[in-house]
């Protein structure tokens, strides 16, 4: 979380950095700022809110050496004071930071750092300023004292920049005499980029980049090709979220096509003897993992999904006959990364299922199954989720030695929207529940996450068979229950559950391809193979969340308190 940007060159760096921050806004958008050097002095401009505010504030400013930041608050409230960049007490250094310094209180006391150092980032900055030697030595030495995660970009009043990282991402590119620095390759310019590894540092002075290891020794680094995603600026709709839901069909097709053309499954390294599959992920990617586990079980491979935040501290017995699949749209999520590192340390078979080609998770796992959902900007994951489910479904076919579907498989997949009357009705209820059984229960979980994430309605998902074991007590005329039913074998069971809800005054809406629910309000789905139905049924649930969010006047792309990449624990 938090986006970092830097520029050294002959163009207007303020404009360049603000441009980069706008691209990085998905990483946090509660406050932002830039720092630049003018006549040997560091100037800082900060504001609460989105990068557009900063753009207005800096529109007449110009500088050649600039750093910037867009924040997702961890330590310290959302206000201009806590926004980055921070200036050291001596006024000689400015810094932007992404990550969390866990021992900042101890450091503040131990090194008697100024009482103005309120946040973990300010403590880190003043610690750097207290160190002796050149700026690169100061940063390297101070970073040895901190515990936690960081990507930092430090600006000296002489125009030198030093950057370093531990866990949080940081990249650089050089275009002739201009140097770009950013938390995401997407915000860089040029054809090639350098990725800093953990505990690597770089100094950029007079437009020259020198790389260092943690011992302060110079190192050489190879650049990699930037694969820019052309989808990024392609917004045809009011919001990214709407545009991304509507891209689902295309990206499913693209993913299937790529898998076939590039023999991607054939290149996956499996354990010599595959006994089971563990899928590890967070949030929506966890729901995709739950779905994946069901697909694998259906073809006879024992499988289980874990929340990465639990897996990393759990007592799972890891073994060499299990394939550990780490599922993540961004490939940056802190808990997923930590879990992957844990498995890597034991040298066990692992696979990254990610949507971002250059991400950290791919570097850790090496064995990669990509999804081709294209850049997803909206915080609420939609097309990337569908692609993850699709990809895991296709992988299960491969493990069962079945052939992949024909390329036009998803052609008839009709988008089902919610009619506005139904949307208003759902939005008017105090209590919203999503129910389902089997695969539909997983879709219910995803539907509930989507709705709470962007509409702030307190809702939850429950396996419909569990209603009688407690939750039925909450059902009355203030409750609406959205039931998903796409699996033939559970149809009649679910129907009885819904009658029980109706009998207690709850409103029931059924999302299904079956004609058996005529007594209830219905959202009719197109008919497909049952294993594909989770992808069909999640679309109206995504639209429902989007429409309620818009009805309430919120921005679905930037829900409060959240960020697209959760790079802190
Ligand atoms: C989805 O709508 C959420 N924004 C969130 O749950 C997300 O899926 C989760 O943070 C995991 O992200 P990742 O896929 O990038 O690892």
Question: How many helical stretches?
Answer: 16
User: What share of residues is helical?
Assistant: 25-40%
Structural class by SSE content: alpha/beta
Strand content: 15-25%
Strands across the major sheet, in which order?
3-2-4-1-10-9-11-15
Per CATH, the class of the largest domain reads Alpha Beta
Assigned CATH architecture of the largest domain: 4-Layer Sandwich
Mean pLDDT: 92
Which small compounds were modeled alongside the protein? 2-deoxy-2-amino glucitol-6-phosphate
Oligomer: single chain
Number of domains: 3
The CATH superfamily of the largest domain bears the name Aminohydrolase, N-terminal nucleophile (Ntn) domain
Describe the structure.
Helices cover 32% and strands 24% of the residues. An 8-stranded antiparallel sheet has the order 3-2-4-1-10-9-11-15, with helices on one face. The protein is globular. 2-deoxy-2-amino glucitol-6-phosphate binds next to helix 8.
């Amino acid at each position: 979380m938090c986006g970092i940007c830097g520029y050294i060159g002959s163009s207007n760096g303020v404009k360049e950095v603000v441009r980069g921050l706008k691209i990085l806004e998905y990483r946090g958008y509660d406050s932002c700022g830039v720092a630049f050097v003018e006549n040997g002095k560091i100037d800082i401009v900060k504001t609460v809110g989105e990068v557009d505010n900063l753009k207005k504030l800096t529109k007449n400013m110009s500088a050649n050496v600039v750093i910037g930041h867009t924040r997702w608050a961890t330590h310290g409230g959302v206000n201009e004071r806590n926004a980055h960049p921070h200036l050291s007490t001596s006024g000689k250094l400015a810094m932007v930071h992404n990550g969390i310094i866990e021992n900042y209180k101890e450091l503040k006391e131990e090194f008697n750092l100024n009482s103005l150092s309120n946040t973990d980032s300010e403590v880190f900055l003043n610690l750097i300023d207290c160190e002796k030697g050149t700026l690169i030595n100061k940063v390297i030495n101070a970073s040895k004292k901190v515990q936690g995660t960081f990507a930092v970009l430090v600006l000296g009043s002489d125009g030198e920049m030093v950057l370093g990282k531990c866990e949080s991402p940081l990249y650089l590119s050089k275009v002739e005499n201009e140097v770009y620095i950013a938390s995401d390759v997407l915000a860089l310019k040029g054809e090639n980029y350098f990725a800093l590894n953990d505990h690597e540092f770089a100094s950029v002075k007079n437009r020259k980049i020198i790389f260092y290891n943690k011992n302060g020794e110079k190192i050489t680094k190879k650049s990699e090709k930037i694969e820019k995603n052309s989808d990024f600026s392609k917004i045809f709709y009011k919001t990214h979220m709407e545009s991304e839901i509507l891209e689902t069909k295309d990206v499913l097709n693209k993913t299937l096509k790529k898998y076939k053309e590039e023999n991607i499954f054939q290149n996956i390294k499996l354990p010599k003897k595959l006994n089971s599959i563990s899928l590890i992920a967070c949030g929506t990617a966890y729901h995709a993992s739950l779905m994946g586990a069901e697909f694998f079980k259906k073809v006879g491979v024992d499988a289980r999904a874990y929340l990465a935040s639990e897996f990393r501290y759990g007592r799972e017995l890891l073994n060499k006959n299990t394939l550990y699949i780490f599922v993540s749209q961004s490939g940056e999520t802190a808990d997923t990364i930590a879990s992957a590192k844990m498995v890597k340390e034991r040298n066990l078979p692992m696979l990254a299922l990610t949507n971002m080609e250059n991400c950290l998770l791919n570097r850790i796992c090496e064995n990669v199954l990509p999804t081709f959902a294209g850049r997803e900007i909206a915080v609420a994951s939609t097309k990337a989720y569908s692609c993850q489910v699709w990809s895991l479904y296709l992988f299960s076919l491969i493990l069962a030695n079945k052939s992949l579907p024909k390329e036009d498989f998803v052609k008839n997949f009709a988008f089902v929207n919610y009619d506005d009357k139904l949307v208003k009705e759902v939005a008017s209820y105090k209590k919203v529940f999503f129910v389902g059984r089997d695969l539909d229960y997983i879709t219910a979980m995803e539907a509930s996450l989507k709705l709470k994430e962007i509409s702030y309605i307190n809702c939850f998902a429950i396996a419909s068979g569990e209603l009688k074991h407690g939750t039925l007590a909450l059902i009355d005329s203030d409750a609406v229950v959205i039931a998903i039913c796409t699996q033939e074998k559970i149809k009649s069971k679910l129907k009885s559950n819904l009658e029980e809800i109706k009998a207690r005054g709850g409103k029931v809406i059924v999302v299904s391809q079956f004609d058996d629910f005529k007594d209830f309000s219905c959202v009719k789905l197109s008919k497909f193979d049952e294993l594909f139905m989770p992808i069909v049924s999640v679309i109206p649930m995504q639209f429902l969340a989007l429409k309620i969010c818009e009805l309430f006047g919120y921005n679905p792309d930037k829900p409060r308190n959240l960020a697209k990449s959760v790079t802190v624990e």
